[in-house]
Design brief:
This protein has 7 helices and 6 strands. It is an alpha+beta fold. The chain folds into 2 domains: 54 residues, N-terminal domain of TfIIb, CATH 2.20.25; 62 residues, no CATH class. The strands form 2 sheets. Strands 1-2-3-4 form a 4-stranded antiparallel β-sheet, with no helix packed on it. A two-stranded antiparallel ribbon has the order 5-6. The chain binds zinc ion (ZN). The site of zinc ion has 8 residues, from loops.
Amino acid sequence: MSCPRCGDRGRVVTDVTLRAQVSAPRLAALDALDAWRRCLGAGCDVAYFRGAEIIDRADVPALARHADDDPERLVCFCFEHTAAALTAPGGAALRAAIADACRDGQDACEQKNPKGRCCLGDVDALLRAAAPPALVISAPSGGCSCCCGDD
Ligand SMILES: [Zn+2]
C-alpha cells in the first residue's frame, strides 16, 4: 500500500476525515470509505489513495488552496494557524496555546486536519526546522500527547 504517484506509504485516515475533507461530488463517487490513506509525499498532488484509486488534492478544499511550501498554508487546521505565523516570533507561544486548547477538548483534528490527526507533530517539525533546537522550548520529540496520543 503506497501512493500510486509518489510511492509514499501514507497514513491511514478514517471515514470521519474523508466525509469532512473531500468535496461532496467526489465523496459521492467513492465505492468505499475504508482503508484510505493520506499521501504525505512532498509536492505530490494525491491527497488520499486506496490501492490504485486516488483522490486529488483539487478535491480536498483544505489542501487545494495552498501548496505544501506556501507560507500561508494552514498547519493547525483546528485553530487556523499558518506556517508563517508559527515560524514568526511568538510561534512557540502559539504552539503552547494549541496544546492547551487540545487538552481542553476544543480541537477537532479528525474532521478538520486532512491527515485526520493532531497538527502538533507538524507544528514541532516546522519549529525545529525554523529555529535552532535550543530555542524550541516546548516541543517534545514525536507527536501529540495532548489529544491523540503520542505517535
Ligand atoms: Zn503521493
